[in-house]
User: What shape does this take?
Amino acid sequence: MFPNAIGFDRDKYISLQSEHIEARRKAIGGKLYLEMGGKLFDDLHASRVLPGFTPDNKIAMLETLKDELEIIVALNAKDLQRQKVRADLGIPYEEDVLRLIDVFRERGFLVNNVVMTQMDGDNAVARAFRKRLERLGLTVARHRTIKGYPTDTAHIVSKDGLGKNDYVETTRDLIIVTAPGPGSGKLATCLSQIYHDYKRGISSGYAKFETFPIWNLPLDHPVNLAYEAATADLDDVNMIDHFHLAAYGEQTVNYNRDIEVFPLLSQLLEQLSGHCPYKSPTDMGVNMVGMCISNDEVCREAGKQEIIRRYYKALVDERREERDPIESDRIALLMGKLGITRNYRRVVQPALDIAAQTKAPGSALQLGDGTIITGKTSALLGCSAAMLLNALKFLAGIDPEVHLLAPESIEPIQTLKTEHLGSRNPRLHTDEVLIALSVSANSDEYARRALEQLRNIRGSEVHTTTILGSVDEGIFRNLGCLVTSEPEYMVKTLYKKR
Assistant: This one.
């Protein structure tokens, strides 16, 4: 299966999903708090496992309703202390909150409120960020950790539970609650708002827009298992929704946290309005993604590939942070369920073969048509830089023997790096190669033709036999390549520069 195959109908999704949300609003009446699971914008995971789903699919769908909704961004204060980073973009959560607000506002959405959840004790980092947000004109609500959440419903639904949280003043009837990542407290934010609305005599309800797991796909479908791989650090597990099975005799898929918290939500709604409209966590959802899969085999293959990518990411993170292999072991179990190994990822073995042949780091790239391009380490170039040049030459129809960069043009850069900038590695990285190629493009026809092919690298699969540095990793991310690495450093040292 080639990387450029399509398995998801984007236009059908935008139409069907917006219609379903509107229908839920009418059924609920009053305010509707819609918890947005996963990423509202830049949903790169969904775009990888559902080829054809674009990263802005959800926001494009909500644009059909934007004059009727407003957005609340939730952020876990403890994630600020932990300096949690959004892995797919490489930026801290606090910066992603600001980025998201900018993106929402640029597209015409109303967003004025941020909720900082689990903001307890002496969290100086959270306090400083709260002040920063307020200086920027945003309203920041403080929510505290509630003892006994989510099981002690009597305490939770009381003035000493949800009652201690700040209330968010909203002006519209459809409220989207989103966050930079999982575990940010979106559900608790919705519950808190419903509690305070009730105290104020305002009718409100809740629904969830959780893309994964996809409720109407089998439990062991690779796309659903890829969600488990993506949340291995949270130990999330996909489960049959036993509430739904008991109520309707129908098997649907949900995940452990939603199933665990359903009794609380049901009891809360009953206490506040005398009636819970839902019989199961599946009932709470408004997710139409499963209805828009146009080619199941393409999505199955994409799910398998994502699981292997998540496996390698876990291995590298564990090596960098010197952690036990807990996450990677969990993902390995998922791979075992599907009967796949690391080598199911087509770029892995070619990269390993290059490394074995040359006794130095190697890399491989799979283009959209399935062609594999490799790169080896030389005195002038790192394997990733060499692979990138080889791929550009292939795409431009340039003879592989042609030097896009003459050795005499590389040597001054190496001298600058080693003699003046203190680098121990004289080889050119991917960013340095691209800069040198750009400089040459004005006078060299080959360099110009090669640069024109950069757009055709997007979506390629890449594997390297050593852990990439942050610069190379960032370049491949910006080029739209899906990169994995063996959990090995090129040079064995005790001190690793972060």
DSSP finds 20 helices and 14 strands in the chain. Residues 296-321 form the longest helix (26 residues).
